Amino acid sequence: MRKLLLIGFVATVVAIGSACNKEKVDTVVYSPVPLTVPVPAYVKNYVGELQSPAANPLTVDGVALGRKLFYEKMLSNTSTISCASCHKQESAFDDPFPFSKGTSGAIGNRNAMAVVNLAWNKRFFWDGRRNTLEGQAHDPVTNPIEMANTWPIVMLRLQFTRPYPDLFFKAFGTRTIDSTLVVRAIAQFERTLVSFDSRFDKYFYQGDSAALTVPEQRGLELFTGKAMCNNCHLMNTMFTDNMFRNNGLDINPADAGEMKFTGLATDKGKFKVPTLRNIAQTAPYMHDSRFATLEQVVDFYSSQVQQGSPNIDEHMPDFGTGLNLTSQERTDLVAFLKSLSDSSFLTNKAFSDPN
Ligand code: HEC
Ligand code: HEC
Q: Distance between the two ends of the chain, CA-based, in angstroms?
């Protein structure tokens, strides 16, 4: 018994030692295989190919590692929450809670954001303070109201947890784990989270005229027509123009939005125009989760717009307090918004917890 324990101990020390030993004779090989995400031709026609930075191309092993890390609770100080705790697949990688809880139980004052089609985005967070997905993924780990950890601790934990050293070797050709490689892997996985298979896509782009009901078709007409939602939530397959705008929620915005990042008074009250893909799954709505339902959102655009809001966007219809939609029009618009859900995205096993 004692001998077995000793052998166990020696084996552990050797394993830990070899995890750091780059000279080790490898049974695992580094031969990166490029990964191509299937993207429909109509999407590419509008918004181009899925983009990755030259320094971080998508590979099969990079994406697999990123997926594992996205669900890795060791990233948080108490090893209790992962990225996926606040970005849940069934909620289009958003959080159903108005304000996500960090490891300390503390909550912030902004709603989490969906992670959908972000490979085509250039600025991240409600105020746009990060300009790459790699940069974005650095922040939650050390944010005191989110994962409240330090990068040196994360790196130590991963370095001494099998099979991570081997997985990093397969993905990046090194067993020495650092924060740069962690965020690169996570960003690779996030870029694979594409959603273009809603009933709207089938109807509008794939020629299936039965894919939308008649009320949904009326809602689609309103979206691009009278209700002018398309001014900002572009129908160019993204349902956002990736800009930062003020849609007139408040006369005195409690959260300065983009101004918090740029310091410019002309950016006060501006927030990222969010995608509307899978919008039925991402309640509550707006940066501060003020609306619980899509009906409430549509009521806002119909009759509660604050024209006196600072920097209200020129793309907002200038109809006093809103569009004055009839009750039938509001119902139709909500029905259309719900047709933007993509059940294959919400249940795709390639995006789920691999652990
Ligand atoms: C405690 C909850 C929580 C955790 C954990 C968390 N996030 Fe978030 N995430 C948020 C909130 C809240 C925002 C919006 C914050 C803001 O705008 O200030 C956000 C924003 C984002 C965005 C921006 C999306 C966009 O459209 O601009 C991305 C991407 C993202 N998170 C990815 C991650 C990744 C990757 C991790 C893990 C490393 C992670 N998040 C961990 C709550 C969380
Ligand atoms: C001037 C540009 C603009 C127009 C026009 C516009 N929106 Fe928005 N929309 C935004 C911005 C900006 C936000 C985020 C605001 C915030 O959180 O402070 C938003 C948020 C939303 C949200 C909440 C998304 C989320 O993830 O929380 C929904 C739903 C929405 N809009 C639907 C619509 C509909 C329906 C219309 C047409 C009636 C419309 N929008 C017209 C800019 C616009």
A: 32
